[in-house]
Specification:
The chain is α+β, with helices and mostly antiparallel strands. It has helices at about 10-20, 30-55, 95-105; strands at about 60-65, 70-75, 105-115, 115-125.
Length: about 140
């Protein structure tokens, strides 16, 4: 379980990089694989940062892999689901996290925690870079 916001983004990125290495996504043997790993780390930063900014920090960070896909889940205590804000200029800072998810993740969304728990889980999925082995099974 994660608590607060201090250092949590870098801890989640480090954990993700270690998991990707264990699962055979790193070291990358192609430019595409290297870019995909950077995309995954950016996506992790975005969803964890959003939990910090809008929900007091993440409560849980989960990675799963299988069938050529990586799934990232970040749960927090806020019942408010991500929603696209009014269009704004890409030149202005902030407010672009969902656009990053739309462009880099294969799929993403959010769901209520369920079972009477307050809060939500924001999830995203990314496909394994082509040309790589399958890594260790889940």
């Amino acid at each position: 379980m994660l608590h607060g916001t201090r250092g949590v983004v870098s801890r989640c990125r480090d954990f993700t990089a270690e998991a990707l290495a264990d699962w055979g996504w790193i070291p990358a043997d192609s430019e595409e694989a290297e870019e995909r790993v950077e995309d995954v780390l950016l996506l992790v930063s975005e969803v964890v940062t959003n939990a910090c900014l809008h929900a007091g920090g993440p409560e849980e960070f989960v990675l799963r892999h299988g069938d050529g896909r990586l799934r990232v889940e970040v749960s927090d205590a806020s019942p408010e689901h991500p929603r696209v804000r009014v269009s704004r200029s890409p030149a202005l800072p902030g407010g672009h996290g969902l656009m990053v998810l739309d462009r880099l993740a294969g799929d993403w969304g959010s769901r209520d925690k369920g079972a009477g728990a307050v809060g939500k889980v924001v999830w995203l999925e990314v496909g394994r870079p082509t040309g790589r082995g399958t890594g260790r099974p889940e």
